[in-house]
Specification:
11 strands; 10 helices; alpha/beta; D-Maltodextrin-Binding Protein, domain 2; 38% helix; six-stranded mixed sheet; 2 domains
Length: 228
Amino acid sequence: MQEQPRAPVRLFSTLAVMGLLQEMLPGLEVGTGRLIAADFAPTAALLRRIEASEAADIAILTAEAVEALVAEGRLLPGSRRDLCISLIGMAVRAGAPRPDIATPEACREALLGARSIAYSRAGASGIFFAGLIERLGIAEAVNTKAIVIPQGLTAELAARGEAEIAIQQVSELMAVPGIDIVGPLPEALNTRAVFSAGLFTTEAAGLLEAMVEGMTPERLQAKGLLPA
């Protein structure tokens, strides 16, 4: 009797590591001998699907989200693995002038001086940025010219010339062609988001270990990420 092919491993992943994982997936499939069905979306969107009992084998989310899902019993106890750290950055259309964001004061002036700013409503970076401009006292001025997308990659708007600057995780900005990275926001204005993986089932344990092993410091740096 012919053995039935095994179902693909289902992976839920935040957009912050999409560029890195898309590069790694073919090698991971060869190394583990399993097909991988990857579904990329903002952490908040994935959490809604998980809370609605949508099935998967492994999730890559913010560390806080993974820890909460472990506490709720949705992810296996002890399965959390911290993968990488991401910073929030700024991008412009390729070849466009790059604003000075070297200091908190310069960054504030750059945000005020930009004609249009794209950020995301659902992503961790967009939620943080909305709070940041409130703390800087410029929320009203920024939001009158902001293009706030429900989810997705803000740099796509910069690449098309629809927004002068785009704000998002540096790794997400780097996933879009046709843009230049201005740099991460100044450290005093930034946040270090830790992204972690957790297992729904032991089915994906081998994949998780291969993933951790493959996320070398060099590979992470090339995708705008830092080792966890």
